[in-house]
Design goal:
By secondary structure, the chain is an alpha/beta fold. It has helices at residues 40-44, 56-59, 61-75, 87-96, 168-174, 193-198, 204-210, and strands at residues 3-7, 20-23, 27-29, 48-50, 81-85, 117-121, 127-130, 133-139, 147-153, 156-160, 179-183. A hairpin with a 7-residue loop joins β8 and β9 (147-153).
């Protein structure tokens, strides 16, 4: 499995893109602004999006990507894009983005029977089977419902924490896995450690304590 880093910054600026990873050519982990660096052909090949949580830096490109590739996917007869997320994340997206006020509800366009996007609820501990990949849903602690992911590969698991605060359950599970690569988001620097703790994020010093 090939992992392409599309974005790993906490905010946007020249050369900075927010969180998104492409697994092979067809599975997206989070949909931050890094998705915008893909070509239309590359976007159209994505069949599954796995979301860690609902914050904008992790979902900003999802509505825009759907709009960009809608005609291509419809003309190709593609299945609806599967968006895998916690029920709380799905509820937030429906209420605040795909609400026909901020953006069209692509889960009902062009029809409820054959939409461009379909939400798929997930749960911690579940192992998702997406495009021949086994991806386990890991626990996370955040200000909104959140998860991490562990994708099984022949050389071990690629593990991504997503935004999270101190999270013993995450490390308990990770320590049971053969880990090939561990990607941990730290949203704040050590000088902002107090802010990280209050907002349920990690800073490098806090991460060191976890390890």
């Amino acid at each position: 499995m090939k992992v392409r880093v599309l974005g790993c910054s906490g905010a946007i600026a020249h050369g900075c893109r927010t969180t998104s990873f492409l697994l092979d050519h067809d599975v997206l982990i989070d949909a931050g602004t890094g998705v915008g660096d893909l070509t239309l052909d590359e976007m159209a090949q994505i069949d599954h999006v796995l979301l860690t949580h609902s914050h904008l830096d992790h979902v900003a490109s999802l509505p825009l990507m759907l709009d960009a590739v809608a005609a291509r996917r419809l003309s190709a007869g593609a299945q609806p894009l599967q968006v895998h997320a916690l029920p709380g994340t799905i509820a937030a997206l429906k209420a605040h983005i795909f609400n026909n006020l901020i953006w069209p509800d692509f889960s009902a366009i062009p029809s409820a029977e054959r939409p461009l996007m379909r939400f798929v609820p997930i749960a911690v501990g579940e192992v998702l089977q997406v495009c021949g990949k086994a991806v386990e849903v890991l626990p996370a602690v955040h200000t909104v419902p959140a998860v991490g992911f562990a994708a099984n590969t022949p050389s071990g698991h690629w593990v991504f924490s997503g935004d999270t605060g101190r999270n013993p359950a995450f490390w308990q599970r990770v320590n049971q896995l053969p880990v090939a690569l561990l990607v941990i988001e730290t949203a704040f620097s050590d000088r902002e450690e107090a802010l990280a703790q209050r907002s349920l994020h990690l800073a490098p010093g806090l991460l060191a304590e976890e390890l």
